[in-house]
Write the structure tokens for this entry.
Amino acid sequence: MSETVEIYTDGACKGNPGIGGWGALLKYSGRTREIFGGEALTTNNRMELTAVIKALSALKRPCKVKLHTDSRYVQQGISEWIHDWKKRNWRTADKKPVKNDDLWKRLDELASRHQIEWVWVEGHAGDEGNEHADSLANLGVESVLLKE
């Protein structure tokens, strides 16, 4: 693991729940890769998580990763909350099931393969990578709308 893969992710939802999209921009060694997709009925948080899962799934081997997200839910969930959720068998502090536990479990599995720095960036504030990921997430929404 030498060079770092820079990843920017974002999710979008038209209505919450509603039609959603996710997007990710991966940058490594002067190359870029764009991925996106969408779902007909979902939530913004599910799309934020899906963007990260799809980006990490695209990596072919263990990597050093700097992952940028504008979702506090994702950033705090994976770096702070997940440890207690796992200790409590995927329950919150008030003993309710963790929302989106299917995605959190998948993200936990993928994250364990890599050395990841989780970076929160303010959304819609001019960060070039975040704006690009947002555009990709909106393409994901459009891809669902075109199928209808």
About this structure: The beta strands are 4-15, 18-28, 31-42, 64-69, 115-120.
